[in-house]
């Protein structure tokens, strides 16, 4: 009995998530820019756990990735992905200048922020706008289409000790699964 209690305690410590998720999708909407370009807009609330704030202060850059998919519902449990897109943004801290640097890795655009709060706000704004290229004629009115989005911390870009912590705890991701909203 004692052995099982020890194993259960060890598993609960390893799988216990750290406090604070890096981001949370508050809501999503969309806007057709053209016949074949769909802009997905995500309202993100960016929060970092203490271990990531400490990592930033020690010169570790954090790479975030947002993924958005346009899906067509085929059945109760299955969806077909019609189009998908991703965007990557890095957050870094430079101690000598005491500024945070937000870099859009796909477009090469760089912004400076004087505080962590400002940096997280810029990060959320950059991650929250994703353009999907949709082939003309693929979206048929009347069929059930939805958009899905999620934000992840790129764990492979972290130093090895933080990678292990992230994998064991699963602490540096948004909610498990996708945030969905209907395409109307």
Describe this structure in words.
The chain is α+β, with helices and mostly antiparallel strands. It has one domain. The chain is 24% helix and 41% strand. It contains 4 helices and 9 strands. A 6-stranded antiparallel beta sheet has the order 6-5-4-3-8-9. The protein has a 3-stranded antiparallel beta sheet with strand order 1-2-7. Strand 3 (62-73) and strand 4 (79-94) form a beta hairpin. It is elongated and about 55 Å long.
Write the SSE topology.
Elements: H1 2-15, E1 23-32, E2 37-46, H2 50-57, E3 62-73, E4 79-94, E5 99-104, E6 110-113, H3 116-127, E7 129-133, E8 145-153, H4 160-169, E9 179-182
Strand neighbour order, sheet with most strands: 6-5-4-3-8-9
Give the overall average pLDDT.
81
- The class by helix and strand makeup works out as alpha+beta
- Largest sheet composition: 6 strands, antiparallel
- The poorly predicted ranges are 4-21
- What's the gyration radius in Å? 19 Å
What percentage of amino acids are in beta strands?
35-45%
How many β strands by DSSP? Answer: 9
Number of helices: 4
């Amino acid at each position: 009995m004692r052995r099982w209690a020890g194993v259960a305690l060890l598993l609960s410590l390893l799988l216990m998530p750290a406090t604070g998720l890096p981001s949370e999708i508050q809501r999503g909407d969309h806007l057709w820019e053209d016949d074949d370009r769909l802009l997905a807009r995500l309202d993100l609330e960016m929060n970092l756990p203490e271990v990531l704030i400490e990592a930033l202060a020690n010169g570790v850059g954090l790479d975030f990735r947002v993924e958005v998919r346009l899906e067509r519902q085929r059945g109760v449990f299955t969806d077909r992905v019609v189009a998908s897109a991703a965007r990557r943004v890095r957050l870094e801290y430079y101690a000598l200048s005491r500024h945070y640097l937000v870099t859009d890795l796909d477009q090469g655009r760089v912004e400076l922020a004087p505080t962590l709060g400002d940096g997280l706000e810029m990060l959320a704004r950059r991650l929250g706008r994703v353009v999907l290229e949709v082939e003309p004629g693929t979206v048929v009115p009347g069929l059930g289409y939805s958009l899905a989005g999620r934000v992840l911390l790129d764990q492979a870009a972290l130093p090895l000790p933080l990678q292990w912590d992230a994998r064991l705890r699963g602490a540096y991701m948004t909610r498990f699964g996708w945030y969905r909203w209907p395409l109307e």
